[in-house]
Please model this.
Amino acid sequence: MRRDREGFDEAQSHRFSDNLGFELKNSRILIVDDTLTVRAVIAGYLRNYGYVNLREACDGAEGLDIAHEWAPDLIITDLMMPRIDGFELCHRLHSSPETANVPILVQTALNKSEERSAVFSAGAADLISKPIDPQELLGRVRTHLEKRRLIARLSDFQRRMENELALARTMQESILPEDDELAAISARYGVTLASHYEASIGLGGDLWGLSPIDDDRLAVFSADFSGHGVGAALNTFRLHSFIVGGAVKAGSPAEWLSQLNVFFYDLLPAGQFATVFCAFIDFARNTFDYASAGAPPPLLNSPDTAGSFQSLDSAGYPIGLLSGARYENATCAFPPGSTLFLYSDALIETPEPPNAVFTTHSLCEFLQSMSAGATPQEQKEKVLNHLRKTGMEKPEDDLTIVILKSRSAAP
Amino acid sequence: MNAQTSQTGQTHHIKLSGRLVFSDHAEFRHLLNQITAAKVESCIIDLSELQSIDSSGLGMFMVALETGKENGWSLTLRSPQGHVKALIELGKFDKLLNVEK
Model:
């Protein structure tokens, strides 16, 4: 059998080449050694195995230059070299952002464990013992190239997902009421509004909205889909489509919830649902009707509640769980100067109960403790500041707060 | 979520403690498979030591109910306390599921 000078027979060399995929075969490998014959031997082994993209440097200084200019995928270096030695080369490659992640294989005849650990401390990814054994060399080179390729793929994938999520987040924010829409509603109905929306993991399952019914009446709703992340976020888009699709011609909040339930009962798989609160505020009659599908109890402050915040009964079947679920309307007085405070469960479940900062009851007291003249904006900020004092960077669930205050009666 | 399981006769018992949330989904599904595999007639989930639950956790009970119906076992939730009890009542889950005090 004919053997080439590197000791591989031709058939074996071909088989190796076939094993190297296109990406691996074209990996850029830099060989740094001050001995020409060692470089030639290493290059020969690699070329025989199928690697086609090889460059050589005669010492650390040249190696450093090539590393910066050529961006190799892997560097094989000797330790003892003039000008810049292998240790220094590792240090410099590691301290430069462009080359910090390139795996470096160090050829060494060092056998003492402290010497070998010094090589790793300098930033080497692996060692190749001298004299060089071709199987060891090829095995280690391949392992590190494959690892690098996998990391690159994962990073690419992660970047792509981050971009996708950023786009989805922008889309989701766009289905929340916009500032000009809120300003127009404030002016039309004489209300002051404040709101906060914060998704727990990029995308959220909360949605709230306002929808004019006629010159005297305004509908407000707040919904929270179970779960969070992409699935819950997609459900908010379904809800948004349901609302803007003109499907809402309900005569009352309870009727609207029933319609929503019919729509979502067929769509949502077992175990998924939404809690929803909806009120139709009538500014001519100074009342609102509301219905709830298991939403956290909204808070109401009106001259009728003697100026204190009180929670509303909001028990009800969540949307999407029970075929033909029926909802009840309730009516509350909402004279000028009244405030309706809606929130998602994250506000009373951060951190998780029983250690939560707020309960519905303590939230009432907290709002009560503020001056009577506090605006919705001020109320919102104080509540959020208090929540964050606990050190929670971000609630574990999506957080929505909507505060709506009707204009005080002219003195 | 922590779950202690035992079996007496035709009944599978699960005692949950800690919190039951979004991230427990896979583990809870695994529990449901265990119940089905045990070929029992009923399952009682003891909630007396469950501290808190989120909407996904409540959803898991609905999944358990469906799984039981499909596989021939009945589901009972027992002794919810505090926050868990309040949420079960808020969403009228006590009307959708068999909840004992």
User: Anything to note?
Assistant: The longest strand of chain A covers residues 217-225. Residues 1-11 of chain A have pLDDT under 50 and may be disordered. The domain at 10-157 of chain A is CATH 3.40.50.2300 (Rossmann fold). Chain A touches chain B through 28 residues (CB under 8 Å).
